[in-house]
Amino acid sequence: MLGEQIRSVIVEVIAQIVPDEDLSNLRGDIRIRDQIELDSMDFLDIIMELRKRYGIEVPEDDYIQMATLDGAVAYLEPRMAHL
Amino acid sequence: MVSLARTKDSKIEMANEQRIVITGVGLTAPNGNSLSEFRQNLLNGKAGIERIETHYMGEVLAGVCHFDPLKYQKKKELRRGTRAGSIAIYCANEAVAHSGLDLTTLDKSGIGVYLGITEHGNIETENEIYAIKQYDYDVKYWSHHHNPRTVANNPAGEVTLNMGITGPHYTLGAACAAGNIGLIQGLQMLLLDEVDLALAGGVSESIHSFGIFAGFKSEGALASHSDPHKACRPFDRDRNGVVVSEGGCVCLLERLSDALRRSATIYGEIVGYATNSDAFDFILPHAPRQAECMRLALKKAGLSASDIDIVSSHATGTQQGDLQECQAIAEVFKDAPRTYTNNTKSYIGHTMGAAGALELAGNLPSFNDNFVHPTVNLDNLDPRCAIPNLVINKPAKVDKIDHIMNNSFGMLGINSVVIVKRFDGQC
Question: Are residues B76 and A19, on separate chains, in Cβ contact within 8 Å?
Answer without folding.
Answer: yes
